[in-house]
Amino acid sequence: xxxxxxxxxxxxxxxxxxxxxxxxxxxxxxxxxxxxxxxxxxxxxxxxxxxxxxxxxxxxxxxxxxxxxxxxxxxxxxxxxxxxxxxxxxxxxxxxxxxxxxxxxxxxxxxxxxxxxxxxxxxxxxxxxxxxxxxxxxxxxxxxxxxxxxxxxxxxxxxxxxxxxxxxxxxxxxxxxxxxxxxxxxxxxxxxxxxxxxxx
Length: 200
Prior knowledge:
Elements: H1 2-34, H2 40-45, E1 49-52, E2 61-66, E3 69-75, H3 78-86, E4 116-120, E5 131-133, E6 151-154, E7 159-162, E8 182-186, E9 189-192
Antiparallel strand pairs: 1-9, 2-3, 3-4, 5-6, 6-7, 8-9
């Protein structure tokens, strides 16, 4: 009878030790496996960033971080797009001849798709973050005049850009806002950081 009790105890202790060991291995493996995924810091330092634009309303803007810099995604209204041609004489570089951008953004809208504008939210003067002032006309604070067509305004030193990130004449910023590499994955998602989607 003593042998039976010892055998039962032995089996219970063996089972308990095995379960405890399995749980310990699982807990130890979880952080190790998680370390294989790119961290938020790694993504910010250069890994491509995917953006869901399905809920972005016309006239609204999303902000994300890529490589430690803000990226703005603006869903332009038809009125915003139409305004681009009417102000070219007020811009320093209306055709973006001296500004940094991918080949596919060398057009009036500076975009792959005229409706969606993707731009680095970094002023080309001293790297401040321009604010969206999309509403045309004078601003309540009196900084923008009645002929303001809508766009981006850098409050630090007064640089102004239209809704295609093109710089106005007579402001401190020397060039248009920079366009990062990006691609549309589908109608609802944009991938910032690459020029094309690679399959396989």
